Amino acid sequence: MAKKDVNIKASTTERGKVNAQPRFHQSAPEIQEYGTVSHMLPLDLEEPVRLEMTEQLNLLLADTMTLRDLYKKSHWQVAGPTFYQLHLLFDKHYGEQSGLVDTIAERIQLLGGISIAMAPDVAETTRIQRPPRGREEVPVQISRLLDAHQIIIGHCRELAKRADDLGDDGTNDLVISDVLRTNELQVWFLSEHLVDAPLVRAEPGRLRNVG
User: Fold this and answer.
1) For residue 9, is it within any domain?
2) DSSP string, 175-196
3) Helix, strand, or coil here: 135?
């Protein structure tokens, strides 16, 4: 018992005097660099596979974070007769994209990688065009959102096939079941708002051009 007390006392002495004062302004080197993966994880996936998947998932993450923020911008700035409906729809889609951001980021970490996180890094990585700071018309807002969805959906199809070829079933399932299907459904809801149809009075003789 005495020996145990000596060990505890020595350990406390090594740490120095314990107090309740927070230690501010701390810094230290990174414990893992971006663009790397942890070694020897028991995932039955070779390191080159995990490197490729985390790189592609970070591209998908950057685009998803950008689309998420584009939805919030549209939610705040939408104007016109459809304000109420689109204000709610944009916020609903924002919430769903926020969920996807967390899901993709956690998959990257699970594979031993480092998920992109900060806005400047996302801006340098995303393939989605940056919108102006000001307010745009509703058709332009929706078109911009649809263009962003198209980039993500195209990448999803390529990434899912590549993950399947490499035997990364978890990434394949995430990309198809979560990201792709969510984006496809949101595209449907947005696209219907661009149909040029009468709001109140039908026009039987109106010639409707498609395209």
Assistant:
1) no
2) IIIIIIHHHHHHHHHHHGGG--
3) coil
Q: Is the pLDDT of residue 151 over 90?
A: yes
For residues 65 and 126, the answer to whether their CB atoms sit within 8 Å is yes
Domain span at 149: 47-193
**Does residue 153 lie within any of the structural domains?**
yes
Burial class from Cβ neighbours inside 10 Å (0-12, 13-18, 19+) for residue 35 reads exposed
Query: What is the C-alpha separation between 97 and 92, in angstroms, rounded?
Result: 9
Q: Model pTM?
A: 0.87
Q: How many domains does the chain have?
A: 1
Q: What is the number of helices (H) and of strands (E) in the chain?
A: 7, 0
In a domain, 137, yes or no: yes
State which amino acid sits at residue 134: G
Give me the mean pLDDT over the 8-28 stretch.
Answer: 77
Instruction: Confirm whether 53 is domain-assigned.
Output: yes
Which residue do the tokens 């790397």 mark?
Answer: 36
Distance between CA atoms of residues 61 and 76, nearest Å: 23
Q: Where are the beta strands (DSSP E) in the chain?
A: none
DSSP, res 168: -
